[in-house]
Each structure stands twice: as structure tokens, then as C-alpha cells.
């Protein structure tokens, strides 16, 4: 399977799509995609799938995310973050670290969130942010999301009409941290918005292994082998899934869409060959008898008309 995933430290400013395009051009990839959108103002971990690795990006996107969020109390905005227009103001003088920490527990677990108007969610075939910029408020159904933990890291009492709290967030996909910020303010009786957001982990990727975007572009120009060595293999990127090791004849069978007489160690598994390369994603066959291919990534040369296996 050709390609891999580069973990990029996204800067504030560009969209996630713009970052992907800059990485693709810097590394000379034919195609690229990301493993979970960050808003333009947000920074941090953005996994960029290159070439054949785009075939697995939706599985990586299923992973949990971790953030450091800066919540500003005293002002609410129409976008729930610092980019929007002020819509409410209140006095945060009565807030304390203890009150903020105590309020966080109400937002841990499975919670319902109404997607913000300034978001990429589609309603009636149109993205919400397009409707918002056209001055239209759209009715949105709440969505169930999972917040695993919220931890108050620091609290700064009001000094310039705003109090600020730095919060560590660990959550499932689809969670809007800015909506948590806005809802936290409402729970405390003080308008609030998300002032800054940094993603520290996304699925299997962490900020410690991320390359700044300008460094990616420099290495792509001056030391391509060095940046190529930083690519995460598709097999490693899907390391959270159970593993099935397959022999050459089983690789051929999977490539032909056949079921293997093997027991699946999970609902969805990665099938690896003797070299540890990703062959396919597999799942239990109907009736639980054997495992079937969900997506195959190789074409063994033994199959007539196929090309050599790509890894």
C-alpha cells in the first residue's frame, strides 16, 4: 500500500483543507486528505493521509480527540468562539476556580449538543455556516456526543472584564468544544466563548510527534527523505484495531473477496501480512463463520491481470 500519514502541527489561520494542500504539494503526493477538521483559528494535531492512505482516513477519524481549550467568561459570540460577533456580555467577577471545576462535571459522559450555526454540518443539503452567513437561522436537531473527561488546568480571575479558564478536554468524534465553552458559561450564569483551541491528540496521533507546517514545507524542499521517514504506516495508524495475521494464500483469498475460515478477534480488524503491511480491513462473516474482507488494499501478482502488491 503506497503512502502514509504525516502528523502536522497546524498553525492558526489556514483551513484544514489548505493545510492538506500545502502538505500534498510539499511532498509531491498525488492525493491527500485529513483525519478530522480543525477550525482555521485552532492549532495542533492534524493527520494528513497521503496517496493510498486516504483509503483509511475515515477509520482514523473515528478515534477520540484531546484538546486544550481556553474559555473566556464575560462575552458570548454568535460563533461561540473568538472569531464571531459579540451577542451578550456579563460580569465574571464572581467566578472562582472551584465554581468552574464543579460545573464541568455536568458536561462529562454522553451529552446532547446542538450543532452551532457556524459549522460544516449539512441541514437540508446546505452547510450551516453558509446559512448563517446568509443571515438565516436553521433549526438543528441535537446530536449525541461523548465527552470522556474535562479537567480544569488553570483559572485566571477577571482582570480586563474577562475571566479565563484553561481546560483539558478528551472527547469522541463530532464534539464541538466551543459549544461546551458556551454551555459552560450558561451553566455558570456568565456569557462565555472559546478563546483558543489546541488539539493535542487525534486517534493514534499526538502533538509530540507532529511537525510544524513550515517545517514540513522546508523538509519537503531540502530533505524529502527525512520527512518521508516521519510518515506513519497505514498498519500503525490503525493500531487500535485488533490484528489478524494472514499467510500469502489468505492474502490472495481476501483480494478475491473470499471469506477466511478464521475467528475474528473483534467487530472490525486489520489483516496484516508476514511483513506487517496492511492487507485489508476484515469483519466477522454472516453467522459468525469466518472473516470477510470489508476493504482490500492489495492485489497480489498471483491474481491474473493484477499488478504487484503495493504497500
Secondary-structure-derived class: alpha+beta
How many distinct beta strands?
Answer: 18
Let me know the largest β-sheet: 10 strands, mixed
Helix content: 10-25%
What is the CA-based Rg, rounded? 23 Å
What's the shape? globular
Helices and strands, in order, run as EHEEHEEEHEEEHEEHEEEHHHEHEEE
Mean pLDDT value? 90
Strand content: 25-35%
Helix count, per DSSP? 9
In short:
By secondary structure, this protein is of the alpha+beta class. It has helices at residues 16-27, 57-60, 97-104, 128-133, 177-188, 213-222, 224-228, 234-237, 248-255, and strands spanning 3-10, 32-34, 43-51, 65-73, 75-77, 86-89, 109-113, 122-123, 126-127, 143-156, 163-171, 192-202, 205-206, 211-212, 243-245, 269-272, 278-284, 291-296.
Description:
The protein is α+β, with helices and mostly antiparallel strands and 311 residues long. The chain contains nine helices and 18 strands. Strands 1, 2, 3, 4, 7, 10, 11, 12, 13 and 14 form a ten-stranded mixed β-sheet that branches. A four-stranded mixed β-sheet has the order 15-16-17-18, with helices on one face. α1 runs parallel beside α6. The longest helix has 12 residues.
Jot down its keywords:
single chain, 311 residues, alpha+beta, 4-stranded mixed sheet, 18 strands, globular, disordered C terminus
Task: Give the secondary structure arrangement, pairings included.
Layout: E1 3-10, H1 16-27, E2 32-34, E3 43-51, H2 57-60, E4 65-73, E5 75-77, E6 86-89, H3 97-104, E7 109-113, E8 122-123, E9 126-127, H4 128-133, E10 143-156, E11 163-171, H5 177-188, E12 192-202, E13 205-206, E14 211-212, H6 213-222, H7 224-228, H8 234-237, E15 243-245, H9 248-255, E16 269-272, E17 278-284, E18 291-296
Parallel strand pairs: 1-14, 3-12, 15-16
Antiparallel strand pairs: 1-3, 2-3, 4-11, 4-12, 5-6, 7-10, 8-9, 10-11, 12-13, 16-17, 17-18
Helix pairs in contact: 1-6
